[in-house]
Amino acid sequence: MPEIVLKNVTKRWGNVVAVNDFSLKIPDGSFMCFLGPSGCGKTTTLRMIAGLEEPTAGKIYMDDKLIYSSEEAFSLRPKDRDVGLIFQSYALWPHMTVFKNIAFGLEMEKLPGQEIKKRVQEIADLMAIGDLLERYPSELSGGQQQRVALARSLAPQPNCLLMDEPLSNLDAKLRVDMRTELKRIHSETKQTIIYVTHDQLEALSLGTQVVIMNEGKLQQIDEPMEMYKNPKNLFVGEFVGTPRINMVRGDLIEQEGQFGFKSDGIFFPLKGIEGLRAGQQVVMAVRPEDVRLTKPGKESSFVFTIYSTLPAGADIFARIYKNKTFFTVRQEERVIHTPETAVGIDFVEDSLLIFDAQTENLLGKTSLIKKG
Ligand SMILES: Nc1ncnc2c1ncn2[C@@H]1O[C@H](COP(=O)(O)OP(=O)(O)OP(=O)(O)O)[C@@H](O)[C@H]1O
Ligand SMILES: [Mg+2]
Fold it and tell me: Is the CB of 303 under 6 A from ligand 1?
């Protein structure tokens, strides 16, 4: 099972820099999710690992073995890289049945017929297409075709699987089912999987590690929870998590001897953060589940007003405001407040993220100083 290493990989097409000086180590056996907005270079990176695209500069290694080097003008042929591929647009062989499509890779390996039959049936059942084996691709829905493509790539159990939005054509329910199956398959086979998605929830729930890209550049690589809790910059903080993280632009100031954050006429007294001083322009950000609604007056000195309430089944979200500042809150209480109700707010300990307003990098985490 291979470890894959990218060293200073860049891909340019004329003026377009699709991937910009990208260095990354994909540990053996990991389920690495590439996450980022459309056009950030995810597919290009995957294609370079597979050998379908040549980097403009940089090196790629698989298990210490050089597979690409621009300097040495060396490129191992795609078929010698032992990777399985599943792409956004998958092409099934139209003249072959579903069975033949899935069995193709196994037949190339010259496995005995009985063994092939067994493996195809197993993987097809897992993908919920076990009763479609005699059909032709043209007789399948888009979602079914996508599952056949998945089964075809999984069947030969390649050392490394590269998947580019393999679930994009499936409906919401199937998508969740397939995620469960993929995660299960990974925990059983321990194949190295590189999985491209622009769906942050998919990346968080599948990945052992998540890589966030923006405009061809690596933003952060971390375990999903770490990424969520400690985003290195505003882009990552904003990209990961729904509803979106709350962000307020303002200044760190000292008011009546108290350090804090001020924005829109509201002063939040804060615990000091090492290296931070009054006078700095920052963005304060906090996740919806880290904002707590309280009773106004007694428990909190901040009085906000309910703007609207958005029940979402298991959770109830509220939009609250004061002056021009809005927060989204995941309520702890299952109550639907009427608009214009006054509420107090509080923040979970150590949940306030402070970012530099210019560089947008995380400067530190802090807490509100409570009244009394
Ligand atoms: N063959 C090509 N020629 C010129 N530019 C290209 C080519 N392929 C990709 N690009 C450009 O490179 C950038 C990255 O494209 P890429 O397909 O890697 O994005 P992506 O992250 O996979 O996006 P999506 O989520 O939409 O699939 C884009 O700006 C794209 O227009
Ligand atoms: Mg893509």
Answer: no
